[in-house]
Write a sequence for this structure.
C-alpha cells in the first residue's frame, strides 16, 4: 500500500513537471482550444438544423484546407527560425508579414469570385459566398498561432492562458446569444472571425511589434525553408481529410453534418498522447542519437503500454456505447452518426503508438511526405471503390483501411529495419488491457440496459461512464494489468 502511495506521488509530480514545461505550454493552449471547440460544436449541433450546421462546419473545414496555401506552414517552421535567429521579435513580425502578403490577395480574389458569381455549381453558391470570411479566418488564426509560438518559445505563459480563456468564453457566450436571438449562419461565422480578430489585437498589443523590423532577406529565407514543409503539410491535410472532401462533393450538406460529427475525436486522446510525447521525446532522441536502440525500443514499448491503459478502455466503452455518446453530445438527430463514429474508433487502438517521435528520433523525418503521398493514393483508390458499394460508410472505411493497411505497417517496418529489433510491440500486456476493457464494457452495457427505464438517459450515461472507469482502474491495478510503475520508468 505504501509503495502504491509513493508511486502515485511520483506520478503526480511527473504530471506537474510536464504541465509546467515549456513544450507542453503550447500543448495546453491546444487542449483548451480543443475543448472550447467541442463545446461550441455541441452547442451548435443542438440549436441549429442539420443544413445550417453542415454549412457552418463546411466553411471552417475549407479554412483548414487553405492553411498550407496561406500560411506556408509557418506556425510550425517558425520554431526553427526562433532557434537560429537572435531577434525573436523580428522573426515573428517577418512571419506575420508573409501571412499577410499571401493572405490578403486570397481575400480579394474570393470577394471577386463572389461578386462576379464565378461559380459553376449551383449547390456551392452559398458556400462560396462565405469564402472571403473563410480566408480571413485562416489569416487571423495563423497569426494567432505564430504569436502563441513566440510566447511558448520565450516561456511567457500567463498572457496565453488569459487570452485563451477570453477567446472561448467569448465564443460560447456570443454564439449562444446569436442562436437565441437571430439563429443566423452569417452572424455565427462573423462571431468566430470577430472573436479571433480581437484575440490577435490583444496579442499584438502585448507584443508591441514594430513594422520597421521587417527584413526582406529574412522573409525570403523563411519562404524558401517553409515551402517544402507547406507542401508536405498540404499532402498530410489532404490525406487526413480526403474522406470529408469526398463527402462534401458527393453528398448533401445534412450528410456532411452527420459525417463530420461522427468523425469527432475524443479529447482524452490528445491529452494522453501529447503528455507521453512530452515525457519521452528527449530520451528517445538521446538513445537514438547514440544508437542505443534497445533502450529506445524499451521506452517505446513502455509508452505504448501506458497509453493503452487509458485509451483501450476509452476505445471499448466508446464502441459499445457509440450511439449513446452521439446522442449525449450532439442530440438525438445525430444518432445515425454513431456508424461513422464506430468506424473511426477503429483507428483509436493505434493511437497508443506515437510513431512521429521515434521516426524523427531515428532520423526519418523526410519519409513523412512519401508516406503521406502513398496514404493519399491508397485512401483515394479505396474511397472510389467503397463509395460505390457502401455509400458514405465506405468513405470512412477507406480512411481507416488506408492507415491500417499502409501507414502502420510502413512505420513498423521502418523502425524494425533501422533498429534491427523485431519485437517492438508488447503484445501480451496490450491484450490483457484490451480484454479487461472489453469485458467491463459489455458488463456496463448490460447494466445500462437494466436501468434505462428507471433513469434519465443523460444522467444514466454519466453514471455508467463514471462507474465503468472507476471499476476498470480499481480492477486493473488490483490484477496488475494497469501498472503505474511503467509510468515511473519513463
Amino acid at each position: 500500500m505504501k509503495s502504491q502511495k509513493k508511486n502515485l506521488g511520483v506520478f503526480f509530480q511527473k504530471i506537474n513537471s510536464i504541465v509546467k514545461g515549456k513544450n507542453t505550454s503550447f500543448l495546453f493552449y491546444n487542449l483548451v482550444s480543443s475543448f472550447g471547440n467541442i463545446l461550441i460544436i455541441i452547442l451548435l449541433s443542438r440549436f441549429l438544423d442539420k443544413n445550417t450546421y453542415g454549412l457552418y462546419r463546411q466553411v471552417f473545414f475549407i479554412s483548414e484546407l487553405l492553411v498550407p496555401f496561406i500560411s506556408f506552414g509557418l506556425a510550425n517552421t517558425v520554431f526553427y527560425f526562433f532557434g537560429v535567429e537572435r531577434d525573436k521579435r523580428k522573426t515573428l513580425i517577418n512571419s506575420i508579414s508573409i501571412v499577410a502578403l499571401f493572405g490578403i490577395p486570397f481575400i480579394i480574389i474570393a470577394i471577386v469570385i463572389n461578386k462576379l458569381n464565378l461559380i459553376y455549381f449551383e449547390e456551392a453558391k452559398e458556400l462560396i459566398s462565405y469564402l472571403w470570411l473563410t480566408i480571413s479566418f485562416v489569416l487571423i488564426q495563423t497569426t494567432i498561432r505564430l504569436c502563441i509560438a513566440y510566447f511558448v518559445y520565450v516561456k511567457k505563459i500567463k498572457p496565453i492562458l488569459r487570452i485563451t480563456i477570453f477567446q472561448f468564453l467569448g465564443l460560447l457566450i456570443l454564439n449562444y446569444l446569436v442562436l437565441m436571438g437571430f439563429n443566423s449562419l452569417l452572424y455565427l461565422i462573423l462571431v468566430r472571425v470577430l472573436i479571433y480578430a480581437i484575440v490577435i489585437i490583444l496579442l499584438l498589443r502585448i507584443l508591441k511589434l514594430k513594422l520597421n523590423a521587417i527584413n526582406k532577406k529574412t522573409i525570403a529565407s523563411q519562404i524558401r525553408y517553409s515551402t517544402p514543409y507547406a507542401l508536405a503539410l498540404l499532402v498530410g491535410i489532404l490525406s487526413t481529410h480526403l474522406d470529408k472532401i469526398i463527402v462534401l462533393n458527393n453528398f448533401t450538406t445534412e450528410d456532411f453534418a452527420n459525417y463530420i460529427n461522427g468523425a469527432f475525436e475524443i479529447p482524452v486522446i490528445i491529452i494522453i498522447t501529447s503528455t507521453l510525447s512530452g515525457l519521452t521525446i528527449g530520451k528517445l532522441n538521446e538513445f537514438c542519437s547514440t544508437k542505443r536502440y534497445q533502450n529506445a525500443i524499451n521506452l517505446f514499448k513502455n509508452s505504448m503500454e501506458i497509453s493503452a491503459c487509458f485509451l483501450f478502455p476509452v476505445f471499448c466503452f466508446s464502441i459499445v456505447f457509440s450511439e449513446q455518446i452521439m446522442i449525449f453530445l450532439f442530440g438525438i438527430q445525430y444518432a445515425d452518426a454513431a456508424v461513422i463514429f464506430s468506424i473511426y474508433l477503429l483507428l483509436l487502438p493505434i493511437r497508443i503508438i506515437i510513431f512521429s517521435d521515434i521516426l524523427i528520433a531515428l532520423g526519418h523525418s523526410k519519409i513523412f511526405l512519401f508516406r503521406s503521398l502513398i496514404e493519399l493514393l491508397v485512401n483515394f483508390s479505396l474511397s472510389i471503390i467503397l463509395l460505390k458499394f457502401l455509400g458514405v460508410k465506405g468513405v470512412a472505411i477507406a480512411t481507416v483501411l488506408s492507415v491500417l493497411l499502409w501507414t502502420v505497417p510502413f512505420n513498423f517496418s521502418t523502425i524494425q529495419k533501422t533498429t534491427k529489433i523485431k519485437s517492438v510491440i508488447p503484445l501480451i500486456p496490450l491484450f490483457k488491457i484490451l480484454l479487461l476493457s472489453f469485458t467491463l464494457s459489455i458488463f456496463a452495457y448490460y447494466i445500462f440496459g437494466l436501468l434505462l427505464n428507471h433513469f434519465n438517459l443523460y444522467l444514466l450515461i454519466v453514471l455508467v461512464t463514471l462507474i465503468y472507469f472507476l471499476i476498470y482502474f480499481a480492477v486493473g491495478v488490483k490484477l496488475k494489468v494497469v501498472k503505474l510503475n511503467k509510468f515511473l520508468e519513463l
